[in-house]
């Protein structure tokens, strides 16, 4: 169980961005996070993935803090895949930095074998995003924070990307936090729906209970 | 990707390799020709027997020019490498804390605001002249521009999402420095060093010309040009033209190569 306990985060200037955020996500569950631009969705995603340290509160998995070393069990997927990869590395090396996925999984994510020999600038945003998603599914990863990963993709590529992730998540009981402005997408994918406004979370669907 | 800069850079690299091979091998086959005096052939103009003419002591100018360029090449290379090392070390040091970053930035700004020829002269003079003094003086005055570029590059890569993601996959600091930071900095260091190289050669010649550089007994380009000054009004043009032309060609070749390499990388 991934749990955030009373997370607070403020800017370097001291003004608060997030205040007392708490949430829980069981393995295999999908949590949708929406909110206006600048509400702190990405910051919350980074806090959950251990990319940022909260000023107050903590993030735990099964009651233990996120490990300081080794593969983090919560992986963060940024919106721009171009920034998420070393531009001087070939795609094969980029994937292998995290793990060596089986060929069936590479195929399942629609990744062509010849892409592995190319540099990132020779792939489209959608193609590169698929590589980044697959890279994040390394052994030991139990939760993924998908920060607007399909915003820049066309509908067909979006569908194939989410289908591949959904299939893998179901097989491996992977918990997924989806950050998006697309409420239709969140409603379709997620069991939990949260809206971030004014630095705190509120449930955005009446049938869901607050954790 | 545009291949033209790479092809041109490869062409220049070939020409430079030939030039460097000629300069490096010259000390073996020149022997003592640059210092050999022929009093019966003093101040002879260029001819079939004296290709680039002779100086006031009857020494062959072609041999002295070649020996001078060879010496300048070594001094320039050493100063460029030392300057790049200082720039890389200080840029890396600036990454350790915000206080160190502020200190390094202040040092860079201060040194860039002082005319470097004055500093160059003072340092070379304080160190007593000679080859080592010239190398140290040029390196100490020419690292700030490169350090500023390297610091900015390090800052951008250190905060790049792919570095944060790499840490998320459990990669250690050593891996990140070796695999992400250094390969990103290497082309900048290479181009920076190559751009520093012609500067260093010119400053070595300038310092030697002004009398605080290499020993006057050494056939350095600066020494040849300083000697030529005394005879220019007498019409002995070859004494200044050929060493100057050699220096110009070498500096231009390296500078053009560095510019092309910067485009290619």
UniProtKB/TrEMBL annotation, chain A:
Spans through the membrane: none
InterPro entries according to UniProt: AAA+_ATPase (IPR003593), ABC_transp_ATP-bind (IPR050319), ABC_transporter-like_ATP-bd (IPR003439), ABC_transporter-like_CS (IPR017871), P-loop_NTPase (IPR027417)
GO molecular function: ATP binding
Presence of the UniProt keyword Nucleotide-binding in the record: yes
Residue span(s) of domain ABC transporter: 2-210
Superkingdom in the source lineage: Bacteria
Key words of the record: ATP-binding, Nucleotide-binding, Transport
Family matches, as SUPFAM superfamilies: P-loop containing nucleoside triphosphate hydrolases
Family, similarity comment: Belongs to the ABC transporter superfamily.
PANTHER family, alphabetized: D,D-DIPEPTIDE TRANSPORT ATP-BINDING PROTEIN DDPF-RELATED, TRANSPORT ATP-BINDING PROTEIN
Name of this protein: Nickel ABC transporter ATP-binding protein
Native source species: Vreelandella lutescens
From TrEMBL, chain B:
Compartment annotation: Cell membrane
Species name: Vreelandella lutescens
Topology class, membrane: Multi-pass membrane protein
Bilayer-crossing regions: 7-30, 71-96, 235-254
CDD domains (UniProt xref): TM_PBP2
Chain segments annotated as coiled-coil in the UniProt record: none
Top-level taxon: Bacteria
Keyword Nucleotide-binding among record annotations: no
Protein name, per record: Peptide ABC transporter permease
